[in-house]
From TrEMBL:
Residues 9-138 form the Haem-binding domain. It holds the Pfam family Haem_bd. InterPro entries: Haem-bd (IPR025992). It comes from Leptospira terpstrae serovar Hualin str. LT 11-33 = ATCC 700639. This is Heme-binding domain protein.
């Protein structure tokens, strides 16, 4: 039993030497919004949905590194505020609506993310800011 435990510890330690890519590509066409909206997005969304991810210390420890890198990759694929300006106006409007929809349904920010980042929790005021923004943005496209 002790031998198996030591082998598992050894494997765990060896895996720490195989780093996972934690990149922050250049910001190419950042979303243009008011400072008030930008503050909410930066605090609650940018870690997974931009090229400005702040990689916490635990993102360097296997197996958390795999999980976090995968979440960020998925988040950027779905919506990347650092490349938002590259989207057509129609796609931008759709994404803004989806932001509000996810927030309204309590899906964003994810609860598991909030466990480690409680300051990213959206207040009622934050939600209202995003709701008004989403409504305004979608009305502009009509």
């Amino acid at each position: 039993m002790k031998r198996i435990f030591l082998i598992l510890i050894g494997v765990f330690l060896i895996l720490q030497f195989f780093p996972i890519a934690r990149t922050n590509p250049s910001v190419t066409s950042e979303i243009q919004v008011s400072p008030e909206i930008k503050e909410v997005l930066k605090r609650s969304c940018y870690d997974c949905h931009s090229n400005e991810t702040i990689w916490p210390a635990y993102s360097y420890i296997f197996p958390a590194s795999l999980l976090i890198a995968h979440h960020v990759e998925e988040g950027r694929e779905e919506l990347n505020f650092s490349e938002f300006g590259l989207l057509s106006e129609r796609k931008q409007n759709k994404k803004i609506y989806e932001v509000w929809e996810q927030v309204d349904e309590g899906e964003m920010p994810p609860k598991d993310y909030l466990l480690m980042h409680p300051s990213s929790k959206l207040s009622e005021k934050d939600k209202e800011i995003l709701k008004v923004w989403s409504d305004q943005y979608n009305k502009e496209s009509e």
